[in-house]
TrEMBL record:
UniProt protein name: Actin-like protein ARP6
Signal sequence, renumbered to the chain: 1-20
Lineage of the species this protein comes from: Eukaryota, Fungi, Dikarya, Ascomycota, Pezizomycotina
Summary of the function given for this chain in its UniProt record: Component of the SWR1 complex which mediates the ATP-dependent exchange of histone H2A for the H2A variant HZT1 leading to transcriptional regulation of selected genes by chromatin remodeling. Involved in chromosome stability.
GO cellular component terms, A-Z: cytoplasm; nucleus
Source organism of this protein record: Metarhizium acridum (strain CQMa 102)
Family the UniProt entry places it in: Belongs to the actin family. ARP6 subfamily.
Length: 1033
């Protein structure tokens, strides 16, 4: 499944509440920053977003912006990338209507970056060597005027760079002279041109000189008092750069070159105007080529992806020409701007709680955006993961938010999963002393990774429970001043490192701190009770308990040059360095064992189309495709309480009042205990499908829009309980693309077509037992935004027929097996519902219609099974004379035959597929849902989809289904669209045979996840890899 540009909003709305454990964690990373350079998790996330962006700019999915007018460049920067100027992922798109500037966008293409310039200007301020806590009037005495409305003598350079000066937003630029007449028409009094500022008003006069800028700063009103609250200001950056100019003797162009561009090798970062031959220039009137003059510090720089990548890389790796402490300070907020947002120098901070939906916690994003005319830019720094995200666009500004959100929603969760994956392997281990301590006792410490962070599992010193002792000591000391402590003790890294020696080699000592978790709040009926419990007070407890000069909360992990954790130490235990148990075993064995050869690729593939009513299963062995078995997917109990599992139901002799237990509900496997019972008997104990899972590949179908928790459960069963060698879980509808679908539509006169697998474009209607889905496919990939679901399937139709019969005949509500057989034998889809209703209408009480009894041939008799002479029901022509005779025989007790006469039930039941409102369901019918699906897609795809509608599933077997669907779709689409609807020879096994063809594809190994990958990378990788869909290129 692709990750769409609206995913960020989706994450915010669907993810669960943030973790209470991480709400009050220490500021900074939860786990060490991941190495993303070679991370398969991040690589897969990048591939998914690349495909989504390709689909967006090609019109396959709705982009949300005019793709023909917007060019853009996106990039992801990591502390572990090989070159500072080469991001670990990037994407560039040049809009087709761009007719100026560079022809091929690269990471060196120039864009206007607007207010992202403020980041560069603040860096210059920090690097200038000037005391930035001095008042600006020390550098520009003219501002210390008695006429000034702004108290400049109280405003420092730091306040100006932090949006806390209260200075005006602009000088002249805030005047909209070109809207002068509109102001008057809106009720404002007319004013003269002389009432406007003498400079800087666009459309009226020129830009301002230094003297005019300073005079404007004296005459304008302050927005707020200094340091009272943040107030966004462009002119504040102009003012502090003028101060730097006075202090250094260099203008802004020189400061940019000397402090930023030359030291960091930023070849495309300079004050506007840039170079047209390198530029990305949008169509229309834009700010490209503007000379911003003295206003450049607030928003007038040009830059590129490569340059911003170098800058972000230096910032993240602490290699900027500032100390690490200065950089950490720079990445901290200065004041609040909202409940979860703040401002710094000049970073705009947000702390979304659900950027990492699998492990929700507040993630600090330090960002800065800019927006000159027809340009947008965004630089986001997520220091917790060592990640920088860059978005530069030229064109309609509506693209910027969508693209920035897509970057955040794609790569922050991926970085989080990568950090957890790497921490699981390196830190969540058991460490043990290699030799006994001074007290002749070994020390052992074990850690695990829970859903939030690294936690202590156990610390033992000989037979003593040190971990339990630590918690008791905390409770006896500082515990009397705090809330009660919980059971968990968490660990967090501190960003404190030092180089030391271990076994004669240089290693990095990485300091972590223990972090207690508070227990339950005090129960009280007093007002405001426990309101203080939500205050995060754990930060006050650090370094509070020592044992012989060693803090009880300070521990050290040791890492070698390859960043592998090779030791752990608890100085308060005087334990020395503990080694990972695996390393101790290897050293005792005389060295590390050679890595085993990778397992051979499976030659057998077990394919399971796991439907709610039946599962279709079979083996593809060495490319040979056999016939699948169709197995009832249920556990049944009859009236004698005898239980039948799966295909054993054929042994049942009495189908009356059967009780069913089904593992699948609404299309999803929700009862794995029942499903495993059926799988064990039908798949692994049956000769036709018997295979050794450890040597086989599994291909398993699932419905669209699967629930992540159910998918994770499925992955665990497949790998951890059955141990399959490899596995692919895919949307069942997509497997139908692996047929030669054009041969479904050819007439006998047409020559057979060459197989095109997967089909280029098709629309699959899958109507099964639980529901009906509409899935548009492009080259085998589902177009997720257009997938639609109708909660009408065979189960609902059977229950509806039982309800209708119970109102007019016998009570059939507990006879679902018999009613289902009756439905399959007798029901059909009418082409003219009104006409058939009239045919079966009896007429008024006084005027019976002559043909109402037979319904003009519609009425049929269904003979119910008696489970003695015949165990199955049968349908026959309606005969009124036979009914008269049967009534007489029944009255005389000479017949046991029970007959139901089926009238309008025959077509009223399947009608629910096309008109669910008939039974009060608030859903559109099938044809309307197809229309809704198409409306989510570009019109250019409609002809291909409409000409290739393939229906599969048991509920499409009703007579008249294809004709009715084609008729209704034709009525809803443009006249020039050809509508073709086809049904495979066996729509029940069509999905299975498509999956069988997929299993024989030479690139099938690109799709599957191996057991080894699962064991190393977990369910997160499975979810991300399967989200990519059937991408075999």
């Amino acid at each position: 499944m692709h990750i769409y540009t609206r995913l960020y909003v989706l994450l915010l709305s669907l993810a669960g509440p943030t973790s209470a454990a991480l709400n009050c964690r220490p500021e900074g990373p939860v786990l060490p920053k991941p190495n993303l350079g070679g991370s398969p998790i991040l690589k897969l996330a990048g591939q998914n977003l690349t495909q989504t962006l390709d689909d967006a700019v090609q019109g396959v999915i709705k982009a949300g912006w005019p793709v023909e007018n917007v060019s853009f460049s996106l990039a992801v920067v990591s502390t572990y990338q090989k070159s500072a100027g080469v991001p670990i992922w990037e994407y560039h798109h040049r809009a087709e209507k761009n007719d100026r500037g560079v022809k091929n966008i690269t990471r060196d293409s120039q864009y206007l970056i607007g207010s992202v310039s403020k980041v560069i200007s603040d860096y210059i301020l920090l690097k200038s060597g000037v005391d930035i806590d001095r008042p600006v009037t020390d550098f520009i005495p003219k501002l210390n005027s008695s006429r000034s409305k702004v108290q400049w003598k109280d405003i420092t350079l730091r306040m100006l760079g932090s949006q806390l000066s209260g200075a005006p937003a602009n000088n002249g630029f805030s005047e909209y002279y070109y809207l002068k007449e509109f102001f008057v028409q809106s009720g404002f009094p007319p004013i003269k041109d002389s009432d406007y500022p003498p400079c800087g008003a666009i459309g009226l006069n020129q830009g301002c000189s230094v003297d005019e800028i300073l005079e404007g700063m004296i005459s304008q009103y302050p927005v707020t008092a200094p340091m009272e609250r943040p107030a966004y200001s462009n002119i504040a950056f102009v003012v502090f750069v003028l101060a730097l100019q006075e202090a250094t003797g260099k203008n802004y162009t020189e400061l940019v070159a000397d402090i930023v561009s030359k030291p960091l090798d930023l070849r495309n970062t300079l004050p506007s105007p840039g170079e047209d031959c390198k530029a990305m220039i949008p169509p229309g009137e834009s700010s490209w080529g503007t000379d911003y003059g003295y206003n450049a510090p607030g928003g007038g720089l040009v830059s590129s992806v490569a340059d911003l990548s170098k800058f972000a890389y230096a910032l993240l790796t602490r290699s900027l020409d500032l100390t690490p402490t200065q950089i950490r300070k720079w990445l901290k907020p200065e004041d609040w701007t909202g409940a979860d947002s703040a401002v710094g120098m000049p970073w705009e901070f947000s702390r979304p709680l659900t950027l990492t939906p699998s492990h929700p916690h507040p993630v600090t994003v330090a960002g800065k955006g800019g927006g000159p005319q027809l340009y947008s830019s965004q630089l986001n720094i997520v220091d917790e993961y060592g990640v920088g995200l860059i978005m530069l666009s030229a064109g309609n500004s509506g693209a910027s938010t969508v693209l920035s959100d897509a970057l955040l929603a794609t790569f922050v969760p991926a970085a989080d999963e990568a950090s957890r994956d790497q921490a699981e392997k390196q830190y969540a281990r058991t460490f043990k002393s290699e030799r006994t301590s001074t007290q002749n006792k070994s020390v052992e410490a074990s850690f695990k990774l829970d859903n939030d962070s690294l936690v202590i599992s156990e610390i033992r010193h000989g037979g003593d429970d040190v971990f339990g002792g630590i918690k008791k000591i905390w409770g006896l000391t500082i515990g009397q001043y705090t809330a009660t402590f919980g059971s968990a003790m968490r660990l967090f890294p501190t960003d404190l490192y030092q180089t030391t020696q271990m076994d004669g080699k240089n290693v990095a000592a990485e300091v972590w701190r223990l972090w207690p978790e508070f227990g339950e709040p005090i129960e009280s009926d007093m007002p405001g009770s426990n309101s203080g419990f939500e205050n995060c007070l754990q930060w006050t407890l650090g370094d509070w308990i020592h044992y012989g000069k060693e803090p009880l909360d300070r521990v050290i992990f040791y890492k070698d040059a390859s960043q592998h954790v090779i030791g752990f130490e608890m100085p308060f235990l005087r334990s020395g360095i503990l080694k990972p148990i695996s390393d101790l075993v290897d050293s005792m064995a005389g060295g590390r064992k050679a890595k085993p050869a990778p397992p051979p690729r499976p030659t057998n593939t077990l394919i399971v189309d796991n439907g709610a009513y039946t599962l279709k299963a079979g083996i593809v062995a060495n490319g040979h495709v056999g016939e699948p078995r169709i197995i009832p997917n249920c556990i049944v109990r009859d009236r004698s309480r005898k239980v039948f599992l799966g295909s054993d139901i054929a042994k049942c002799s009495d189908f009356g009042e059967l009780q069913f237990r089904r593992p699948v509900e609404r299309g999803f496997i929700v009862n794995w205990e029942a499903q495993k019972e059926i799988w064990d008997q039908e798949l692994f104990d049956n000769a036709a499908t018997k295979c050794d899972p450890t040597e086989a590949r599994l291909i398993l179908s699932e419905p669209p829009n699967g629930l992540p928790v159910l998918q994770t459960n499925c992955d665990q069963v497949v790998f951890e309980e059955y141990g399959f060698a490899s596995y692919y879980r895919g949307i069942g509808s997509t497997f139908n693309a692996y047929h030669d679908i054009q041969n479904l539509f050819r007439t006998p006169k047409d020559a057979p077509t060459a197989a095109n697998v997967p089909a280029e474009v098709m629309l699959v209607v899958d109507s099964g037992y639980s529901h009906t889905t509409i899935t548009p496919l492009l080259r085998g990939q589902p177009l997720h935004s257009a997938v639609r679901r109708l909660d009408v399937g065979g189960n609902l139709l059977t229950n509806y027929l039982a309800r209708l019969l119970s109102l007019r005949h016998f009570d059939m509500r507990n006879e679902t097996y018999i009613v289902n057989e009756m439905k399959e034998a007798a029901c059909y889809v009418t082409l003219d519902f009104k006409s058939d209703i009239e045919k079966t209408w009896k007429g008024t009480r006084g005027e019976k219609r002559p043909s109402h009894m037979s319904g003009d041939g519609i009425v049929r008799d269904y003979v119910l099974p008696d489970f003695h002479t015949h165990t199955k029901g049968s349908m026959r022509e309606y005969d009124p004379t036979r009914h008269t005779k049967a009534r007489k025989l029944a009255a005389a007790g000479q017949t046991d035959e029970d007959v139901l006469t089926l009238r309008n039930e025959r077509f009223a039941v399947p009608e629910l597929i096309f008109n669910p409102l008939d039974m009060g369901m608030q859903q559109p019918g099938l044809a309307d849902l197809i229309q809704q699906s198409l409306q989510q897609l570009p019109v250019g795809l409609w002809p291909g989809l409409l000409a290739n509608i393939v229906v599969v599933g048991g509920s499409t077997l009703f007579d008249g289904f294809i004709q009715r669907l084609q008729k209704e779709v034709v009525q809803r689409v443009p006249d020039d669209c050809v509508v073709r609807v086809a049904r495979p020879a066996d729509p029940i096994t069509s999905t299975w045979f498509g999956a069988a063809n997929l299993a024989s594809h030479p690139n099938i190994e690109k799709l599957v996840v191996t057991k080894k990958e699962y064991e190393e990378l977990g369910s997160a990788l499975v979810a991300r890899k399967f989200a990519a869909g059937l991408n075999l290129t």
